[in-house]
Design a protein that fits this description.
4 strands; elongated; alpha+beta; two-stranded antiparallel ribbon
């Protein structure tokens, strides 16, 4: 029974939580640990600041000599009964 002070009941969830944890078996403890660890890792990845990357955070991360490598597009073609083809087109 919960203690009563005057006309006000003292409500505490701590006792309820400990009663629940006391009745859990080992499989429930392991699964609760796995779920809580996954939640912690996901939240840490969400709110942790990213490391500085020179290439990503600035526009100077390209080639150092100023000449960029030629860009190409690669097209793969394969149809039933035919030889597969790989076509490289310069942009």
């Amino acid at each position: 029974m919960r203690p009563v002070v005057g006309m006000i009941k003292i409500i505490s969830c701590a006792k309820c939580v400990w009663d629940y944890l006391r009745t859990m078996d080992w499989q429930q403890v392991v699964s609760l640990t796995i779920v809580s660890a996954a939640a912690v890792l996901l939240l840490r990845g969400r709110f942790r600041p990213r490391k500085f990357s020179f290439q990503r955070d600035t526009h100077c991360g390209g080639c150092s000599n100023g000449i960029s490598a030629p860009q190409h597009s690669i097209i793969f073609r394969a149809r039933k009964g035919e030889r597969p083809q790989i076509v490289i087109k310069p942009k």
